[in-house]
Amino acid sequence: xxxxxxxxxxxxxxxxxxxxxxxxxxxxxxxxxxxxxxxxxxxxxxxxxxxxxxxxxxxxxxxxxxxxxxxxxxxxxxxxxxxxxxxxxxxxxxxxxxxxxxxxxxxxxxxxxxxxxxxxxxxxxxxxxxxxxxxxxxxxxxxxxxxxxxxxxxxxxxxxxxxxxxxxxxxxxxxxxxxxxxxxxxxxxxxxxxxxxxxxxxxxxxxxxxxxxxxxxxxxxxxxxxxxxxxx
Length: 232
Description:
This protein has helices at residues 11-40, 48-56, 61-84, 140-149, 179-191, 195-207; strands at residues 5-7, 86-90, 94-99, 102-107, 111-117, 120-125, 130-135, 166-167, 210-215, 218-223. The protein is of the alpha+beta class.
């Protein structure tokens, strides 16, 4: 297996995240500290109790406390950003997408297309099924260069099967068993902004051979060809 090309956050981006988030946390906490007396005097302002408490505390305790709280909050955000960072490794043999210590690996000979759908990196298989879909905050140019360098079919124009999608409506005939129930559950998850649930249900539909695309809050789908079955 070759080492391949790795696409992730640049060193500059990592430094900016590590420095900027704690600085912003401290600045935001100190702004609350400075504005607390003014806000506490506004009868219509929300959260009067906490602001009055902050306004009554003596200096320099409030300033020091605000700096500590802001710094801790910023460091927590740095840790979250690091955990959610996505790294894509591409080689002649396979590709690997890693996020939060979870890695999805796909062999090169399984791939029929790679493209960006909005901010999602999508990898399609030989039956046009989705082998991987991951939200990425990476340069489209760097991704394209990595995949084309190793001979992958990068689609700069997006989904090559975009015209095959149909809009899902409840009770639509012709879907596999259980697909309609999964679509209904996913519609509820989307309405409630439960992204993780919606992603999990997308995967369940994918296992039924149904590929899902979200457009303007609506669900569209296409069905993959059935896999070939060996005789005997």
